[in-house]
Design brief:
alpha+beta; six-stranded mixed beta sheet; 8% strand
Amino acid sequence: MAEPEIPDRFLGGYAQILGEVADTGRRLTRDELEARRTLGRESAEAGHQLRALVRLHLAETRAAWPSAAKGSDPAATDAVLAAVEQVVDAFAEGFERAQRLTVRREEAARREFIDDLLYGRSDLGRLAERATRFGLRLSRAHAVAVATGPEVYTESDAVPRSVESALLARFSGRKILLTTKDGRLICIAPGSQPDVLRYFAKQAHAATDGGQVAVGRPHRGPGGVVHSYDEALEALDLAQRMVLDDPVLYAADLLVYPVLTRDRQAMADLVRSELGPLQQARGGAEPLLHTLSVYFDAGCVAAETARRLALSVRALTYRLERIHQLTGSDPSDPMHRYSLQTAVIGARLLDWPAKEL
């Protein structure tokens, strides 16, 4: 596509200045330099390219040279070249100032949009209109992945930039929004493209040195993004409470946990009833609760549980018998196992016994 023609007004009497400089050898005045900066700013706001503007000034210099430099007078030539340097420098300064201001405005608008999108603020219709500017069509389903690591990340940090570069290199034509929020990395992608979020999870896990990534379910409409975002955050919170160390968590695979805690009072009653007696043990409930948790994670296989706990099978058997004595429920009995395992999950979700129920 051909570049738009640049109006002569952006030269602003440039040839006349060169002629006066050649005649007198003077340097540009403060007012003239400020006028060049203003022209640079206005040309940036008009959407012209700096390269084309510099080329325009050099072409004008060449056209005005015979009359400006007085033939081969070395002093006049040196004065004209110094003036060209001053003009181009001031013009470029004004241009760059305008560009920096535009970038800051764009960044502010993008951050405001992301905040409104992820917090569900603003009119949904207006939000959908603004989304098209950033490559999102909120009438369709979108899913959100959230990555957390050992550090707090901002968009200018090396980790987010490396993840973004990897995704853009692989999915350059896709409608993807990458950002950071509250120190975490966030990727918003169409719900019909799960490969994007899987790749994001892989890259983010590696870039954050083993950080954890949670992926929300796809949801349709402007409110769908915040819904998926909330699911991803809840999955990360759940992983912390349940000590889930999977590198990638999918909200769709963890739906049973919100169901279990939907009636918080009922779950608290179950924990107190099934596990409350463990508090009578020497050292409190936590060691035996941890034993139960590892036992269930190991598929109720005593040898594997003992290995994970760095215990002998005999020592593990003693602990399980002690749990049976205190609670009246036998972890090895299928009839008792379900209630005990549900109570153990509830204890982790409710942060018991660290918090009173």
